[in-house]
Amino acid sequence: MDFEQLETFLEVARLSSFSRAAERRFRTQPAISAQIRALEEEVGARLLDRSGGKVSITQSGKLFQKYAEETLEARKAVLTAIAETERVPRGEIIVGANEGTCLHILPEVFAEFKRQYPDVAVNIKRADYGKILESVIDNSVDFGVVSLPVTDNRLKIVLIHRDELVIIAPPGHPLAENKSARVADVANFPLVMPKVGHTRDALEELFNERRVKPRYAMELDSSELLKRFVAANVGVGFIARSHVQEDVQAKVLAAIEISDAQIRRDLALVYRKDKALSRAALAFIDTTVKIKTPEVVVPVRR
Predict the structure, then answer these.
(1) How far apart are the C-alpha atoms of 199 and 170, rounded to whole Å?
(2) Which domain holds residue 62?
(3) Which of 40, 81, 236, 258 is the most exposed place for a label (fewest CB within 10 A)?
(4) What is the pLDDT of residues 216-245, one digit of tens each?
C-alpha cells in the first residue's frame, strides 16, 4: 500500500467514477482499476461497489476512506513540519482557478513566487467556480482564486484583484465607434455568452432588471473561445477588463465601457479558515497580495 494508491482511492470515491478519476490523476482507466484491485486484495475487502453501472463506496470503503484521508494529512503535516525546521518555504502548494484567471491574472504571481521560493512546487488545477470551492473545502487544493462574492463561512477570503466587466466587439463593429454603450444598446446585437458562472448569472440578472431580451448567438464554456468568436463577428460579449487588454492592444477586439451599469469581477484568494498554513502557503499569500493589490497590502503574520 502506498500514498499514490490512497490518493487514487480517494479520487474515485469522491468522483464516483473510475474514468473521471483517471482524467484527474493523468492515468489510464485500467491503471486506476489495477490500483484499486491491489488495495482491495491487501485489505481483504471490497472498497468500491461497481455493480449497477455506477461506482459507490461500500461500508468497508467508508472506514478505509477515513484512514486514507488521515494518512495523507499526516504525511503532509510531517513534510511541512520538517520543512519548517529549516525555516525556508519548501514543499508544494496547489491552486484552483478558472481559465481566464490562469491565463491573465496568475502568471506574474507564479513567476515572482518561483523567483523568490524556487524550492516550492506550484501546481494549478483548472476548474469552474463551483468546483474550485469544492476542492478548497475537501482539501484537494490549498487555495482557490474565484470571483466575489463568496458566502461560505468556512472560508477565509483575501481580496487580490479588482476588476469589472466591459463590452467587447470587433474593431469595426458599430458599438466600437463609442467609448461606452448602454445595456439596451448591446441587446440590439447577437450575444456570445458564457454557459455558466458568476458572469452569466450577473448578466441575466441585469437583463431581467432592465427588461431586456437579448438574442444569444452562442453559449461557451471558455472565455478564450468567447473572445475568438466575438473577434470573428459572431456577436458581441462581456468579459473582465483584465482578460482583454492584450487583445485591445493588438487591435483584435475593442473594449467598450458599460455606461449605465457596473458589474464587478473582483477576485479573491480563498482557503479554509481551519487550515494550518505552511511557510510556503503564507509566502504565497504575501506574494499574491503584494503583486495584485499593492494599494491594500495586508501583511500575513508568521
Answers:
(1) 20
(2) 3-71
(3) 81
(4) 999 998 899 999 999 999 999 999 999 999
